[in-house]
Amino acid sequence: MSSFTPTTPRPAPANTVGFVGWARDNLFATKFDTALTVLAVTIILYVMKAVFGWAIIDASFSGTERTACLKEVQGACWPFIEAKFGQFIYGRYPDAERWRVDLVFAAGLIGLVPMLMPSVGHKRANMIFLLGFYPVFAFIMLTGGVLGLAAVDTTDWGGLLVTLVVAVTGIVASLPLGILLALGRRSDLPIVRALCIGFIEIFRGVPLITVLFMASVMLPLFLPDGVNFDKLVRCLIGVALFSSAYMAEVVRGGLQAMPKGQYEAAAALGLSYWKTTRLIILPQALKLVIPGIVNTFIGLFKDTTLVLIVGLFDLLGIVQLHFTDASWATPETHITGYVFAGAVFWLFCFAMSRYSIFMENHLSTDRNA
Amino acid sequence: MLGALLLAMVWLVANVQSNLERQNINSGFGFLSERAGFGINQTLIDYTEDSSFGRVLTVGLLNTLLVSVFGVFFATVLGFALGVARLSGNWLINKTAMVYVEIFRNVPLLLQIMFWYFGVLRNLPSPRKAVSLGDTMFLSNRGIVVPAIEAASGAGWYVAAFGLSLAAFIWLRRRARLARLADGALMPFWRPLLTVVLASIGVAALLAGVPFSLDVPALKGFNFRGGITVIPEFVALLLALSLYTAAFIAEIVRAGIQSVSKGQREAAAALGLPDKTALRLVVIPQALRVIIPPLTSQYLNLTKNSSLAVAIAYPDIVSVFAGTTLTQVGQAVEIIFITMMIYLSLSLMTSYAMNRYNARIALVGQNT
To answer: Which pLDDT score, from 0 to 100, does residue A13 have?
Structure first.
């Protein structure tokens, strides 16, 4: 009779909690994963070291001219940004009048922030302030010439001011225009439909830069002798028309996703076409395509940089312009300027995309989500 | 309404005519055959200052297509890699890809182009102090110089070998497809293809030897002689377009793969398909159906975005035709019309081709 010999105990199961468990699951799950992790860590460390070294360790932080940025190992030239900051925000807007721009920015924030927060009430009054009062206020404050304000020509505008003016006008104009075009494209009237399809396909088929060329070179030819308007306005029209074509396609996607039953139910209730559209279809359709709408806005915001090609000075344009300043000519000036402008654009675009995700979740009526 | 529209058009045309007369600008397309009189720093076809404006248009169009084709290739490769990385179970890889996507798609393309051109490439040392990669490739502020392959007589045999391999590829693929559709039989594909390729190259080598030589660039005076010089404008534009578009393609690929429901993978596993086969035969074909349409529009966007070349004076169609030619000739209406028509036809042709492809891979029997 053999004696009882217990089998050797099995090893304790792998740790599945805490950092070790997490790392085992997410970083070292297989041999291949481990190799990837090691490779990624190496690359990340290398990039971080380069970025950190450039932006902080080897960078210059103070100084009043180029000699501050001519060290042996030179990183970013931040004094350049500091010295030109006013120009980057306002362009050549006269120093004494810059408070007007600040006021417009502040009023915009005051109107926009409560509008974007779903928990704050009085949305209708807020809307009237933003779309009725604010544009008039901004126009008067920025251009001047009335109420004792000195007139400031748009050729003196520049920097972030121009970027925001072009972007905000484009956004405000393209949404309603895009909705109308999308409705027109699905209209039963053949001429309206043909015109809308033609408009949308032409503007979507060509690059924005040719539209801007058209606005700046060709548009004056179409106007009677002596009639001419501001270059900024012409670019605004170009940008608005261009983005409304993209907006129309996004909205059309939403309209197409509406089940037929919604139209039939509205018809059964005796609602007219416009009432059906306004009260039943659009609220649902637009909600469906919020990500697409915001993506169009983001695209438009990035596209505002193109106005520099036709000779307006938006943020990128003014940064580019100041590279020619001999008193700041260093090997690092360009990269520093681009990184600064890039960071500003990135901040706006990233904020918009995050807000769209927030809004999508907030408006979602899907209980399974 | 139609009447008002017609009236407005007549009014606009009348305005254009009176404006053109007043500014002494010709009309019509006659200028296309006039002498251009300016040089272009990258031409794929013969071009001299004596060439016509029509030639300028062709040169510009070819340059646009060149950068677009390369851009589409690199953006697709990088975009698919990033899209797959975004779905990786490896946290670090996943987040790195996310950071890449969030940075590159939220910064204006024009800024990225200028960054690479004015910030990086123009800051490189002069040819005399060029960065050398193994003494065969040189990186300087005049661009990248790479060795050129020069073919001597006898290279035709290699071309023939390539043609034969291509024909074998097409025929084998067709045979395998027909056999699979007929009775589900799996035909050998890679092995016969490899045999044909190796055999045809071997025969070519026996007949012609190695009729290729490498033309390695060397520094002579202030610049490089020999090899092929890739101008910095091209490099900057290509880099920016590829890196920017890859971020968008990554998101499209991720969404496409995620759109294939988990049940499909589980069903494939239940049928006993190994992971790799399930990916190839079940997941990817379904994901492609979702990926292809937005991917096409990204390719179109890339082509249209290549028009930003004008900012760094890469000689694309907008830069040499809607830019230089326009300032010399002044015929804005015709020139902008031609430019827009070219982009429009490019985009209509691409969407036509993609719609055909889409119809082919769409679910049979699904009518939405």
So the answer is: 75
Label residue A369 by pLDDT band (50, 70, 90): very low
DSSP string, B14-61: HHHHHHHHHTT---SSGGGGSB-----S--SS---TTSBHHHHHHHHH
Query: Residue B334: closest CA among chain A residues belongs to which residue?
Result: A218
Radius of gyration, alpha carbons of chain A: 28
Domain with B206 in it? 155-212
Distance from CA of A312 to the nearest CA of B (A): 13
Query: B248 and B320: one domain?
Result: yes
Q: Are B119 and B192 within one domain?
A: no
* C-alpha radius of gyration, chain B, whole number: 26
- Give the minimum alpha-carbon distance from B109 to chain A in angstroms, rounded to a whole number: 7
Q: Do B243 and B111 share a domain, yes or no?
A: yes
Nearest residue, CB atoms, A221 vs list B90, B119, B332: B332
pLDDT at B1: 67
Asked whether residue B56 is assigned to any structural domain, the reply reads yes
Q: pLDDT value at position B238? A: 94
Report whether pLDDT(B4) > 50.
yes
Given A27, A43, A338, which is nearest B114 (Cβ)? A338
Does A137 contact B at CB distance below 8 Å? Answer: no
Distances (CA, A) of A31 to A13, A34, B84: 19, 5, 18
| ipTM of model | 0.85
Tell whether B354 and B236 lie within a shared domain: yes
Q: For chains A and B, what is the number of CB pairs under 8 angstroms?
A: 152
Q: Per mean pLDDT, which of A43-52, B47-56, B119-128 is the most reliable?
A: A43-52
Task: Give all domains of chain A, ordered by start, each with its CATH number.
Answer: 88-157 (no CATH), 158-360 (1.10.3720.10)
A205 close contact with B: CB closer than 8 A = yes
| pLDDT tens digits along B305-339 | 999 988 888 898 888 888 888 888 878 788 888 88
CB contact under 8 A, B15 and A191: no
pLDDT at B367: 43
| Residues B169 and B306 placed together within one structural domain of the fold | no
Q: B315: domain CATH number?
A: 1.10.3720.10
Report yes or no on whether pTM surpasses 0.80. Answer: yes
Q: Is the dihedral of CA A275, A276, A277, A279 positive or negative?
A: positive
On whether residue B25 sits in a domain, the answer given is: no
Which residue of A163, A206, A333 to mutate against B (max B Cβ within 10 Å)? A206
B193 CB-side CA count, 13 A: 16
- C-alpha distance from A43 to closest chain B C-alpha (Å): 10
Q: Which backbone phi and psi does B50 adopt, to 5 degrees?
A: -85, -5
Q: How many domains does chain B have?
A: 2
Q: Which residues from chain B sit within 8 angstroms of residue A223, using beta carbons?
A: 15, 19
Same domain membership, residue B237 and residue B275: yes
| Domain match, B195 and B118 both | no
- Whether B274 and B333 share a structural domain: yes
pLDDT of the residue at A1: 61
